[in-house]
Amino acid sequence: MLAQLLEEKRTLIVVGPGGVGKTTTAAAFAVQAARMGKKTLVLTVDPARRLANSLGLEELGNTEVRIAPELFAEAGIPLENGGALYGMMLDTKSTFDDLIERYAPNAETRRKIFDNAFYQQASTALAGSQEYMAMEKLYEIREQRDYDLIVLDTPPTSNALDFLSAPDRLEDFLGSPATRALVKGMKAAGRVGLGFLKFNTFVMRGLNRFVGADTFLGILEFVQSFSEMYAGFKARARRVREILRADDVGFVIVTSTNRTTIDEGTFFYEQLASHGMPFGAVVVNRVRTPFLAPDELEGLERRLIEAARDSEALASADGYHVQQFLKRGAEHCRDYEIMAQVDADRLALVKERFAGNEDRIYPVPQLERDVHDVGSLAEFAERVTSVQGAA
CATH classification of 2-101+129-165+243-288+366-385 is 2.60.40.350, yes or no? Predict the structure, then answer.
């Protein structure tokens, strides 16, 4: 059962495509763990900020905020046995700044990087920066805090490799032959060489035709300053990779019965295996379950109208509208049962895709109401964690 993951793991990384209830699932895991007596942190890197709203907060920031125990008590689920829940939302820029503060060899290097126009934009817009900073924040929290469980809610997986390979890509960039050659050339040129570029009209005109001279010089200065911290970042990236493969970490893939999201979930599952990262479970959200048997659907419209006639509802002035309403109701019932059968077929597809791990597939029935507060999160969590694996 999923409850076992909450009990045994120190970190759960919740991944999956957008729009499948991933953030809700992460928050529900955290609420349930807190109710189990664990000191729990749920960390989101989802820019939509839905997590804060579902926990009864206006917003979350780059530092942990404790979710008021009173919210649990008001929902009829008071925390016991020392359980506590904290929330946090990643601020990519602040996290990047903290790393520069930590690894810059001196105040002058820090000043150059913080004042660099390229860094000011790259620290938030550089491809992969959000994924890498999520890993950095996870590393920091695991190493410096005493949480029993950390639940990481990740961005939608438009490309699983963006998330899993973020530490490698930054290290590859800093250690690439091109970067090393660039830095070596700049060091050889020194201040005079860089100054020569700034005042060489012919060179500046040429640069402006392509990327803009100021932009190019900003990149050069950034790479030169940043290279001085390469050793620290390399060691950090290595440690992050170790964490992602640790026994106390589990990846939970969230999907739905939509064919596209199943394909994306399958791809992520394959990438976890190829990267040697621990698969924990797959949650299939919003599964429609059948209510009526085929023989109950047969003649449903007729039986509904007969029942209404017996109650004299059709004899009223609105009898015609009542009859039309009942017909549409019977049609909706048939349509729903068809979709429930589609979901059953798609669930069978998920079992096929995750062959060998069928007992880690958890289909969660579609909820009748929106999940938007601690009480509904607890209800969702109980439903998720009580589901038996679909073996």
Answer: no
